[in-house]
Fold this sequence. Notes:
The protein folds into 3 domains: 14-92, Phosphorylase Kinase, domain 1; 96-327, Orthogonal Bundle (Transferase(Phosphotransferase), domain 1); 341-550, outer membrane lipoprotein receptor (LolB), chain A, CATH 2.50.20. Helices cover 34% and strands 22% of the residues. The chain contains 18 helices and 19 strands. The protein has helices spanning 47-50, 53-66, 99-106, 111-129, 164-167, 174-177, 184-200, 210-216, 229-235, 247-262, 266-283, 315-329, 349-352, 367-380, 451-463, 465-473, 491-494, 501-511; strands spanning 14-23, 26-33, 39-45, 77-82, 87-92, 96-98, 143-146, 151-153, 383-392, 396-403, 411-417, 426-431, 434-439, 442-446, 477-481, 484-490, 515-522, 528-535, 543-550. The chain has an 11-stranded antiparallel β-sheet with strand order 14-13-12-11-10-9-19-18-17-16-15. A 5-stranded antiparallel β-sheet has the order 1-2-3-5-4. Strands 6-7-8 form a 3-stranded antiparallel β-sheet. The longest helix has 19 residues, at 111-129. It is globular, with a radius of gyration of 25 Å. The model is unreliable at 290-357 (pLDDT under 50). This is non-specific serine/threonine protein kinase. Its EC number is 2.7.11.1. InterPro entries: Kinase-like_dom_sf, Prot_kinase_dom.
Amino acid sequence: MAFNVVDGWTVPGFTHERELGGGASGRVALAVDDTTGTRVAIRYLDRRLVDDQSFMARFGERARTLTQIEDPNVVDVYDFVTGAEGAALVMQHVDGVSLRRVLAVQGPVGPLAALSTLGGTLLGLAAAHERDVVHGGVRPSDVLVDGQGNAVVGDFALAPPGTEAQAAAPYAAPELWEGAPATVASDVYAATAVFFECLTGRPPFAGRNMARLHREAPVPVEEVPGPLRDLLRRGLAKDPADRPASVADFITALEEAAISAYGPSWEAQGRGRLTELAAEAARRPEPKKPSRGTGRNAIVAAAQPVRGSRTRWIAAGVATLAVIAGAAVAVPMLTGGEDPAPVAAPPTPAQQSTSPQPVLPKGGVDPAPLVVRIEQATAQAPGAKFDFARDGEGAVRAKGTFAVVPGALPSYAMTVRGTGETKSAGNTIVVGDRFHGEVSRKWRPLPADHPYAALTEQVRRGSSVATVTALLRTATELRKEGDVYKGAAPAADLAKVPVVGPLYASLTRTTGAATVDFAIRLDRLDRPAALWLRAGAPQARHAVLQTTYADWGRKDVKAPR
């Protein structure tokens, strides 16, 4: 069926299904690649933009750069098509809804979901900034929440220079109103303004004279939770020089505030909450009257991830994932301020005797009885649901269920994705040394060197209970703060631990780390609730692994027939 988008013109080679939305920059259509069968989103640029030769020359250069960026927090751009009839961007069709819709339907999303949204938005911006592409007009309609609760940024550089303030007035930095060009600093400001709206349900400034409000009105920090106010002060500073110098710096500040206020599992909890809110927003009709200041442009919303056949360049994605690793590694402490005094474990009868005693790790906590309690607790509830993320070198995301196997690695059923050829989510099962993957809705054996089998094995070692106990057993530093144990262990010693040693050997090779820093939170029954570990220095190659655990009990994971 013909699909009349702009003066009857459509990008050749695609069958158009329906319109997804539109705005000042143009209309977006859902289409299918006639060659590959891949669903894509095509943004047809408004005629006024196509006729602006200066804009087209600049945007064409930006579009070519965007096709080289592959990052989980950036909407993939596959092609920029131009001709006498018009111009269009062929893009990834993402599974999710716009943040604008979430806010319009749900209102404020809460601190954890707001922090997760800000973190994902900053990651997407960082990936573009690495390639010298500034967004210029971040607003809720430009942020998509996908099916896993990740914030994905699109619509980069669509506002002609000098019009950024008018295009996204509630989120436009003061200098944009004075005619200054969009910069990294103005992107930070806009992302922070969106963060404020996630927390409160409205932009920080709204009124008739938006320029004056952005330039002169005090930042309404009293409307947000206390631990998050400094993020607002810094991100919404009137002077660009007073804002974080880079997105990486702002991510570091975000991680520090989030871990201090909400603990090491804040990110997984935030993504989980955001997933719920997005799913509910997709089910419910959107209010006729949009939320104040959320903008009108519709971002791409969709049904399934793209599996295009085009060759992708992944260096920018890896570089940006390293940014979030740097943010996490910069905050090994789980509470703000100075370190509290070490809390020593109560003396055991053996320690009260005159016999020589083993030297406890720095911090005074004896790991031996702690390891026993963890092993006993998990033996009684041998399995759990988990959510795993590795950022930095070798980024991976996974979630699923595992069953504890005494003396061996657990059995796992999970959905896992990495970067490059494994960017699309894959369903896998591993039992013993046998890996299985779901291909065309059928389970098939996978060789151990298959990319998805390799990811599954990495997740299995990184999230297993044996990893938790190995960190405690080899710790040279260990202290307790509430229900969290924090410490450090030599990477060389960890590499020698049976079962999980290869994980630490790999981390050492990848990052050159001599020490692994970690934080472990236990539930009231001494079962792991959250694990955070870092290998490598913040300013060097490094990796951060985070796992959250839930629903402990007997799980059954069997190899498919």
